[in-house]
């Protein structure tokens, strides 16, 4: 117990003192998470709407694929991406391996299925009369989609939260394609893993607390956004 | 204006609408009657261009409508579903929705909304949200939302199903007033014959997704004399005995299934007995029933009998026939 208490004391000290390394890692994590969540939701939400509302050959197979991708192991995604981004890989010329951009790509690959599958489920949950009504009142494709999305706003906010949760807590791909380089690609999760392995439990705990705090703040912000408004 | 040709529409392999031809002419008031599950709602969704038929083609002013019609074409027709939904927001915002889609200037939109609000008595509801409205109120708002768009074709699916008698009357009056001000085509689906008979000038029956000749038959506009109980009304050259306390203009309907068919007059309690000649016979219900059409001295009546009864009576076109029905069988609308 002393060991744990000591860890918390150290964590608190680092946070209060405004330790530059801790805050640097936190800022990078926030940047990667926001960019990856934005990209995966920008692509995943329309994809989910499309899968939920359009009838086309192979739709069921596409939904199955997206749902299967939800369970994709993060280290496997990291491994595949490593193969693509490494110097001999097809995308090696980008020079992204061991950069924060590589972590973003990995996170997007992992969060995109979440955004697509969960938003498809959210849209399927909207009364189909809403879409028909928008259409019969003359709305075009975009306005119809927006009208349906407004009805599913709580569920869609939960989708964004889930995507952010996946991205901010991801470690496998970040470790493999980011390289956990100090001051460059070290995120909160990779740092926690490293410092725990090194026995610096206080620092690891401090970073873990920051991670929780980050998740909490983002969730509160999203809840505030979706909480305003009436039926 | 709007026409279905050779349309056969399926849901999961089951044919729900099967129409060789169905048109909604410009400025017509068409009523589609039929029981629940007859295919009325699907027919209206096809007419609203919300669904493309599995087989066949929809035409707009003689031009084939593509499977994914442009929004500009869809904007010329609108549908109010049987159980309409309102969007998130106030009643006013709902009324504005279609006008915003059409990019109608705010001042003009305000005028249009004021108009429909007055017609349908929605003023007290304007700032309310959907969960603060009854089913009947939602239906009225939905009709107003559609009327505000001033489309060429207005499709209404059981528009008065959640309304009480007074509200239903107000709704049909509003519709009539709107049509008087601006002629447009209306097609109403209803399982309540009363609604259809009251205002439509073209009544079509739908059964199992097909047009059926049964229901709209034996309808007559009459002038009911003042008085209680049994009274006689003139229909062409015959007098039909009805039982009603109503007076003035009305529509009377004799359900074909309530007519007894015989070769000679039978001793019975029926107050209405007419002798005539068979003018046509149509097989219905996959051969189990026959609709016998007969001329009763200038007035055509249709009776429904079983195929067996038609055989036993040896009914043939041109042959003699007697139709009998009770005064209480005559429906007054």
Can you give a write-up of this model?
- Chain A is mostly helical and 231 residues long.
- Chain A is 78% helix and 0% strand.
- Chain A is built from eleven helices and no strands.
- Chain A has helices at 2-17, 20-53, 59-69, 74-85, 100-124, 128-136, 141-151, 153-169, 172-178, 188-198, 201-227.
- In chain A, helix 8 runs antiparallel to helix 11.
- The longest helix of chain A has 34 residues, at 20-53.
- Helices cover 24% and strands 36% of the residues of chain B.
- Chain B has a six-stranded mixed beta sheet with strand order 6-7-8-3-9-10, sandwiched between helices. A five-stranded antiparallel beta sheet of chain B has the order 15-19-16-17-18.
- The mean pLDDT of chain B is 89.
- At the A-B interface, helix 6 and helix 7 of A face strand 6 and helix 3 of B.
Biggest beta sheet attributes of chain B: 6 strands, mixed
Describe the biggest sheet of chain A? none
Give the strand tally of chain B: 20
The portion of residues assigned to helices of chain B is 10-25%
The low-pLDDT segments of chain A are none
Share in β-strands of chain A: under 5%
Task: Tell me the strand order in the biggest sheet of chain B.
Answer: 6-7-8-3-9-10
From the alpha-carbon coordinates, what is the Rg of chain B to the nearest angstrom? Answer: 22 Å
Task: Tell me the helix content of chain A.
Answer: over 70%
């Amino acid at each position: 117990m002393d060991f744990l208490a000591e860890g918390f004391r150290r964590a608190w000290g680092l946070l209060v003192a405004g330790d530059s390394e801790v805050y640097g890692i936190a800022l990078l994590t926030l940047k990667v998470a926001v960019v990856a969540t934005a990209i995966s939701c920008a692509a995943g939400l329309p994809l989910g709407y499309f899968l939920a509302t359009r009838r086309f050959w192979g739709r069921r197979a596409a939904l199955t694929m997206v749902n299967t991708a939800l369970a994709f192991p993060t280290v496997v995604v990291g491994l595949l991406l490593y193969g693509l981004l490494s110097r001999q890989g097809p995308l090696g010329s980008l020079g992204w391996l061991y950069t924060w951009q590589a972590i973003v790509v990995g996170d997007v690959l992992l969060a995109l299925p979440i955004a697509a599958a969960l938003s498809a489920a959210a849209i399927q949950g909207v009364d189909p009369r809403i879409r028909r009504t928008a259409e019969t009142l003359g709305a075009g494709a975009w306005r119809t989609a927006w009208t349906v999305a407004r009805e599913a706003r709580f569920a869609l906010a939960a989708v964004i939260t889930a995507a952010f949760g996946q991205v901010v807590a991801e470690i496998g791909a970040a470790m493999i394609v980011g390289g956990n380089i100090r001051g460059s690609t070290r995120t909160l999760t990779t740092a926690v893993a490293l410092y725990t392995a090194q026995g610096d439990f206080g620092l690891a705990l401090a970073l873990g607390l920051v991670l929780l705090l980050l998740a909490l703040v983002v969730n509160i912000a999203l809840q505030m956004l979706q909480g305003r408004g009436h039926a | 204006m709007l026409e279905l040709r050779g349309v056969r529409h399926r849901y999961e392999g089951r044919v729900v609408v099967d129409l060789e031809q169905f048109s909604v002419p410009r400025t017509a008031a068409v009523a589609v009657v039929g029981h629940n599950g007859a295919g009325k709602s699907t027919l209206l969704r096809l007419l609203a261009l919300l669904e493309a038929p599995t087989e066949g083609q929809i035409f707009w002013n003689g031009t084939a409508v593509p499977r994914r019609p442009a929004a500009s074409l869809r904007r010329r027709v609108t549908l109010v579903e049987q159980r309409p939904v309102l969007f998130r927001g106030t009643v006013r915002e709902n009324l504005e929705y279609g006008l915003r889609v059409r990019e109608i200037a705010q001042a003009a939109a305000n005028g249009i909304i004021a108009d429909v609000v007055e017609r349908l008595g929605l003023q007290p509801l304007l700032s309310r949200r959907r969960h603060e409205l009854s089913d009947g109120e939602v239906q009225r708002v939905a009709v107003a939302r559609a009327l505000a768009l001033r489309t060429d074709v207005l499709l209404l699916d059981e528009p008065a199903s959640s309304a009480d008698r007074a509200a239903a009357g107000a709704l049909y009056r509003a519709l009539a007033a709107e049509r008087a001000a601006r002629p447009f085509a209306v097609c109403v689906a209803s399982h309540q014959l009363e609604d259809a008979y009251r205002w439509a000038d073209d009544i079509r029956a739908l059964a199992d997704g097909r047009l059926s000749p049964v229901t709209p038959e034996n309808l007559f506009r009459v002038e009911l004399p003042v008085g209680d109980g049994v009274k006689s009304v003139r229909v062409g050259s015959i007098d039909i005995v009805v039982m009603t306390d109503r007076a003035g203009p009305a529509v009377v309907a004799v359900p074909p299934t309530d007519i007894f068919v015989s070769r000679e007059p039978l001793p019975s309690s029926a107050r209405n007995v007419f002798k005539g000649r068979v003018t046509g016979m149509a097989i219905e219900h996959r051969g189990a029933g026959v609709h016998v059409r007969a001329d009763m001295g200038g007035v055509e009546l249709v009776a429904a009998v079983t195929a067996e009864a038609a055989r036993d009576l040896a009914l043939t076109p041109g042959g003699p026939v007697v139709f009998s029905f009770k005064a209480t069988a005559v429906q007054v609308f």
